[in-house]
Amino acid sequence: MSSYSSPFTRAVVSSMRKLYPESLADKSFDNTGLLLEAPFNPARRQKNSVLLTIDLTKAVADEAIKRKDSVVVAYHPIIFRGLKSLTLNDSQQQSLLRLAQEGISVYSPHTAVDATPGGMADWLCDIVTGAIAPSTDSSPSVSASSSKHYSTPTYPHPQPASASPSSAVPHTRSTIHPSPPPLPEGMESAGMGRLVTFDTPQPLTAIVDRIAQGVGHPGGIPIAVPQSVAVDDMKIRTIGICPGSGSSILRGSLPDLLFTGELSHHEALSAIERGSAVIALAHSNTERGFLHAVMREKLAAELTGEWEVQRGEGLAALQESTKQGGAGVVEGLQDAYNDCECVVDVSERDRDPYGIMIRRV
């Protein structure tokens, strides 16, 4: 076993950093980047494949090991704070140790994806403005449980979807908390949270339908509305948007609608008392669909080009090293660089901890 990570892993990391620069992440609390760098083992080389997930759970780790992926790109960092030990007694540490043993690295982009123009926050903007082609799956799969009144838990099923800006309802969008300079070239609008302002106020129920289609038709839409207004009567001109937990972003002057993953009881109550509505889908239900709709395709395209470049450079370096007598050549690199395969998939096991048990009529 070498002290190097696999060449393909390095190509994945380089591609992610180009798409979602780590400098845009909120370093005040976040822990982004390459969190686990597995050594390259030529005797048991992994496939040139990447598994995308929101959360790196035991089920997702099992999936990656079974698939023989080289890298898991986990949106949420599995390591948030400094570790004083790595043991099998902790379930998350156990997953990391098992992945390292198998030669699988872990990369986390988290808030860099939120802040990047065209990233997760802008994807949610595309959803509420109708720029996302609706999914054909119009209802959750509901199975009976042993409960007399409720089904088994249901979960959203995001599908690949394309954005069509021309179909969007006319609007403007702006960044709520712009990222501080210096900014990467072409990313001047980077920052946390988005504010959508429609040219013409939209029915709240129409926005609810767009959200349901965009995130994969959850079994229910948690919504808070002022007690003095019926949901059918509410018109929305401005929407404050933040994936995941929006409490720290969606403060200050309130828009007509706050759309996020989670907001505390008291924050939601304060919002509706001031005349705003809140849609809080459950934390990762505002995030997971992005992997299917945007990240998978973007990473596959970027990685294909990056891997071709690194393969060419690597093979050329090996040839030169061979001419010099082979000094410094890592065993197994020839086979690694000869492998042109490049696959990016989204986890089938990843899901939000919370499902919806639907009442049976």
From TrEMBL:
GO molecular function, one term: metal ion binding
InterPro entries to which the protein is assigned, alphabetical: DUF34/NIF3 (IPR002678), DUF34/NIF3_sf (IPR036069)
Low complexity bias spans: 136-151
Domain of life: Eukaryota
Binding site for a divalent metal cation: H76, D114, H283, E287
GO cellular component: mitochondrion
Key words, A-Z: Metal-binding
Short name of any one Pfam family annotated for the protein: DUF34_NIF3
Region (Disordered): 136-190
Family: Belongs to the GTP cyclohydrolase I type 2/NIF3 family.
Name this polypeptide is given: NGG1 interacting factor Nif3, putative
Species in which this protein is naturally found: Aspergillus clavatus (strain ATCC 1007 / CBS 513.65 / DSM 816 / NCTC 3887 / NRRL 1 / QM 1276 / 107)
